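Worked Example 4.2. Consider the chain below.
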Amino acid sequence: MHTNKIIRWGIIGAGDVAEIKSGPGFYKAPNSQLVAVMRRNADKARDFAERHQVPLWYSDADALLANPDIDAIYIATPPAQHKDYALAALKAGKDVYIEKPVTLNAVECAEIIAARDKSHQKVCVAHYRRLLPCFIKMRELVLGGAIGTPLLARLDMLQPAASKLIAQTDENWRVNPALSGGGLFHDLSPHQVDLMLHWFGPVVDASGFATNQAGLYPADDCVIGWARFASGVEFQGRWHFAVPTSETRDECEIIGTKGRVTINFFGEQVIRLYRDGAEEEFRLPNPPHIQQPMIEAVNCYFSDGGDNPCSLEEALRVMELIDAFSVHQGQSL
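Applying the procedure from the previous section yields the following structure tokens:
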């Protein structure tokens, strides 16, 4: 079913993430209009609105939520505020699109699910990489028989402390566990964990540990995780954010009964397929506003024209796996 209903959006947290990755998608996507933005710093809220030609700006979230001309809310604050803003938006009768990680932990995600079930609203989560051309192609190769039956998945996300892949902000909230839920693992791994679940289905067993080896900030900088998927795939992941520059890695490798395929998650994606002694390479560029394909799918869902592109239940499974991997070293599982 197709619909021409226009979804009128408000953004809570019009900061760096909304500047290019997501914000323009709300006014460039079909049948989508960005009506208002909110940021606690009034000058920055006004500046964002003026540069993006957004009619209204607020420094108070309650005022934005009280606007009857807004249908849906995009929450792009640090994760510590996701739950409370989501609950407030649902109470105000708004549909909700929440940045990843959806919450600080799985317990908070379950609270949003309970509130959604009591409301008449819809909620989506911004695991947008599953709708990018390169990851659609990767899923096609992995599940379409290009490497036979998938057996093993290995993920290495090893970065130096000054990695260019890691967003730099005035307030480095990403390494403050009270605001992010953990460290850079909690910021970057949700994309990766979501894709593992998207490709291989539910988890039947998982464990791991997290520790702070370099001591550069309060958050853990090293996380190791293992998981067994119901599909039979065995997974191992390593995340470290204080390795020497020479040891920088961003690679996911899937080995099957007939070959293997690799992809990097950040920057320009390159897929390499190895089978029968030959190598084949695929490069599929990302859109200028990387969230726009997901925003278009969310608009379609909110206007009753399609399915939920990423549900809270899917995000809950991501958070459960992140929680399992990031148990503090020495803490019982």
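The first strand starts at residue 7 and ends at 12. Residues 81 and 161 are 26 Å apart (CA to CA). Compare this with Example 4.1 before moving on.
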